[in-house]
Fold:
Amino acid sequence: MIAALGSRYEVEAVDTKAPGHARELARAAISSGTDAVATLGGDGTLNEAADALAGSGIALYPLPGGSQNVFAKLLGLPSEIVDSTARLLESVDLWQTRQVDLGRANGRAFSFSAGVGLDASVVEHVDSNPGRKARLKQWYYLQTGISAYLKSYALRRPRLTIESGTEEIQCDTVLIQNGTYFTFAGDRAISLCDGVNLDSGQLGAALLHLRSPVRAALTASRLLASSASPSGGTITPLNSITGLRARAHDGRELPLQVDGDFAGMHSEVEITIEPQVLTVLATPAMRPV
Structure:
């Protein structure tokens, strides 16, 4: 792949060594006069590079190297490495870029999704077992979700208060979407909200009400069963918002995830959006895969 890209580009290939290293490399690229940064890894690597490149005007291209590659799919880019490399080689002639939004969760960037509550608890556990994550993929998330719910939510679940505009709503978990879809389960797209895309300047959110194991299972099945945005008693959608604030009713700290990476425990989480701050090497005509 590097040799192929070297036939059309001047390429400097650098391996990341630890979490946060992709962010450092992208920042260094800004000062070096680089025209574009291509990441080869999962959405966590992409997240770090996007955070660093926001507002710089340097184009970002996500080569698929993770289990889901959600951001690349949302941009309409190929999900296979050979096809994606070919697309990047073709891009040198036209060099068509697009401006997309970035969300922020307590200042931490996210390109397509964030979550507070059970979702983030699942991500924390999955991240601690990368081998099983790579081998079992979405099935490991489902298995871990059941375990996390029974352990931490079935008897003493944290009640969240969500503030958005003048609304104040109670729920158990909140999922935030910055794109046409929240994520993918294999090839199946999962959408939580309507009217959101990567350059809409708005976010969508789904407030989940998980009052019993039966309701939790019903909510999970509805999210996984269709690419259409869910609604009903177990899910309250918030469409076309520019931010929200989440806190636990009893003051406890809440888990946060951004782009599928655990982002720590927080007493309060503030979600905002930065419209069209990230330059990507993809045309507006491309649609999610």
Q: What stands out?
A: Residues 138 and 185 are 6 Å apart (CA to CA). The chain has a mean pLDDT of 86.
